[in-house]
Design goal:
With about 450 residues, this protein is of the alpha+beta class. The protein has 15 helices and 12 strands. The strands form 3 sheets. Strands 3, 8, 9, 10 and 11 form a 5-stranded antiparallel β-sheet that branches. A 4-stranded antiparallel β-sheet has the order 4-7-6-5, with helices on both faces. The two termini are about 30 Å apart. About 25% of the residues are buried.
Length: about 450
């Protein structure tokens, strides 16, 4: 669903359709200024470039003069909005965009696009077809587009964090209009189930916790003596998703990591290494490499206490006991048992969860038993240290079908509310900025 912010075109799509765009090029008219925002002009050639990119992505362009004029004005309005945001972001001392992150994004895009072509000659031919004379010209275009996108995005995020972009509740008519304008692009509703669950995970015994903490503390000593953090992470970290990258977590904001981790990471200065940070996963050592407003770039080493087969068996027996208490009808409530036994890091409720996105063990259970109510204990990765046992109470099922307005009403309210807030903010900027449209 749409946004008032203009999305920067993905170059892979542009290059994939470049032959089509090149085959329809005509002599370019003399360039002219079609708008001025503040002191920056917007040129007719920039609108033409946007239309070429749309065409390269397979989007048909109007063939009549009235339709083309309307599209040109829509593109110009989007460019004006982006320019207003970029200029305001550059005036805001709290909004930071480093050249390093811009260059990293450019390099990533270059690598992703380049590997789609068998030879360097084919790659360069497609660049020329897309109106880029050299690879460096394309890289400069990418850098400028990425920089502007980051400035606009960071400004909006900064305003939201300050509480200055609170969603504006849309009217029912606005939500209906939004739905009608976007319903053709909506996918089919997947088959879903709603359920509540109690997830019980094996817990390490005290000896395993002590061994893991001791290892983490010994690694911390080495790191503070100057050992290579990435090397230590590759050798010792239990986090399989980051281990091969030397514990690299990338940029993240609050709400992504567990609270214990975030509370420490957002207090550290660049280059600092944390004390031992306990969490539900184990023991972390964190190194913050760079910071910017509301974001940090960090690495970590995670040491997970060993889970023995005996501890897995204890968790299984507990799950069976909880299930028996619920099935026996002895007065034990689902909520009370959940508060007592459920793992706090696991979700307690799932509303309209797509079946195909569930763990395989959940999918197998849901497919074999289509009734509502309490299900047998589900064992996930039962023969591994990552085992967990779920007691599931299915409350609703919905078959695959066409999405209706009611299915997405809450999401529309949230999305449209955020868009209306951004629109109001852009309108404020427009009233404060000189804008001269000459199209």
């Amino acid at each position: 669903m749409g946004s008032p912010l203009r999305t920067v075109v993905v170059l892979a799509a542009l290059l994939a359709g470049a032959r089509l765009a090149a085959g329809q090029q005509t002599a370019r008219p003399l360039d002219r200024i079609v708008a001025v925002v503040g002191t920056r002009p917007i040129l007719a050639s920039q609108i033409e470039e946007e239309m070429v990119q749309m065409q390269a992505q397979g989007r048909p362009l109007p063939t009549d003069s009235a339709g083309r004029a309307q599209l040109e004005r829509q593109i110009l309005d989007q460019m004006i909005e982006e320019e207003l945001l970029v200029q305001q972001a550059q005036r805001d001392t709290m909004v930071k965009v480093s050249e390093q992150e811009v260059l990293e994004q450019v390099e990533q895009t270059y690598q992703n696009v380049r590997k789609q072509f068998a030879t360097e000659d084919e790659f360069r031919a497609q660049l020329r077809a897309a109106r880029f004379g050299t690879v460096e010209e394309w890289r400069r275009w990418l850098a400028d587009a990425q920089r502007r996108t980051l400035y606009a995005r960071r400004l909006i995020e900064a305003q939201q964090q300050k509480g200055k972009l609170r969603p504006i509740p849309p009217t029912d008519d606005e939500m209906r209009a939004f739905w009608e304008a976007n319903r053709a692009q909506q996918p089919r509703r997947p088959a879903t189930v709603s359920f509540r669950q109690i997830v019980i995970k094996p817990q390490p015994d005290s000896a395993a916790r002590a061994r893991a903490r001791q290892l983490a503390e010994s690694l911390l000593v080495e790191l503070r003596r100057g050992a290579d953090f990435a090397g230590i992470a590759k050798r010792f970290s239990s986090d399989s998703s980051t281990r091969e990258q030397g514990g690299e977590l990338g940029w993240f904001r609050r709400g992504v990591m567990v609270k214990e981790f975030e509370d420490v990471a957002f207090r550290l200065r660049p280059g600092a290494i944390s004390d031992i940070v306990p969490s539900g996963f184990g023991y972390h050592v964190i190194k913050v490499e760079r910071t910017q407003p509301a974001e940090v770039l960090a690495r970590h080493v995670l040491i997970v206490p060993e889970i023995t087969p005996a501890q897995v068996a204890i968790a299984r027996r507990l799950a069976d006991s909880v299930h028996a208490a619920l099935a026996g009808g002895g007065g034990a409530s689902f909520d009370s048992l959940s508060r007592r036994y459920a793992d706090p890091d696991e979700p307690k409720l799932a509303e309209d969860a797509p079946i195909t996105q569930m763990p395989p063990e959940y999918q197998q259970l849901i497919a074999s038993d289509t009734t509502l109510g309490l299900k047998p204990v589900v064992a996930v990765a039962a023969n591994t240290p990552r085992a967990k046992f779920a007691i599931i109470d299915v409350t609703a099922r919905h078959a695959e079908g066409e999405l209706t307005f009611e299915d997405v009403k809450l999401r529309i309210r949230q999305t449209l509310g955020e868009q209306l807030a951004i629109r109001h903010y852009i309108d404020q900027l427009r009233r404060q900025t000189y804008v001269d449209i000459r199209l």
